Amino acid sequence: MTGSPTTLDRLLALASLFQQDMRRSFAGTSLTETRLHALWVLHHGGAATQQALSHALGITPRSVSALVDALVGTGYAERRAHPTDRRAVLVTLTPAAQRTMARMAEDHRRLDQELVSAVDPADLEGFERGLEAVRNRLERLMRDESVDYSEIERDRAEPE
């Protein structure tokens, strides 16, 4: 028996729609989800060391090095000498990447307006407060709990 969709079901459906839109929008480009995330971090935070980028993206230093190599190779980022630390290198957006990110920010602003227009203006403040509360709770749950479904694979592999 199936019941009505839960709030989590609805949020997962929204996340899936955003992922589909992102894959469609960037098909045929060198931009992956991880590369876009790095570009957003640099766009919003400015130049960063690879260590800071690694921390912001939640990936290993080795992975961020490969990521930056790919962004440099495709013309989205460049490495520059750190002004005060001879051992460090700053990763910055190229002028072309800055233009791309400005366009994406404008596209996000327009999409935001379109999505928000679906909410009754009288409900908007509560809607935004609710989204923020759900995001905060999910972040806390992710920090405090770790759901592990790996036993499903182990159970499936065992003969019945």
Structure description:
The chain has a three-stranded antiparallel beta sheet with strand order 1-3-2. The protein is 66% helix and 8% strand. It is built from seven helices and three strands; from the N terminus they run ααβααββααα. It has 160 residues and is mainly α. α3 packs across α4. The radius of gyration is 20 Å and the shape is globular.
List keywords for this structure.
8% strand, 160 residues
Arithmetic mean of pLDDT: 90
One letter per element, helices H and strands E, the order comes to HHEHHEEHHH
Fraction of helical residues: 55-70%
Biggest pleated-sheet summary? 3 strands, antiparallel
| Alpha plus pi helix count | 7
Instruction: Return the structural class.
Output: mainly alpha
Stretches where pLDDT is under 50 for at least 5 consecutive residues are none
Distance between the termini: 25 Å
Q: Tell me, what's the shape?
A: globular
Topology:
Elements: H1 7-26, H2 33-45, E1 48-49, H3 50-57, H4 61-73, E2 77-81, E3 89-93, H5 95-116, H6 124-144, H7 150-157
Antiparallel strand pairs: 1-3, 2-3
Helix pairs in contact: 3-4
In short:
Helix content is 66%, strand content 8%. With 160 residues, it is mostly helical.
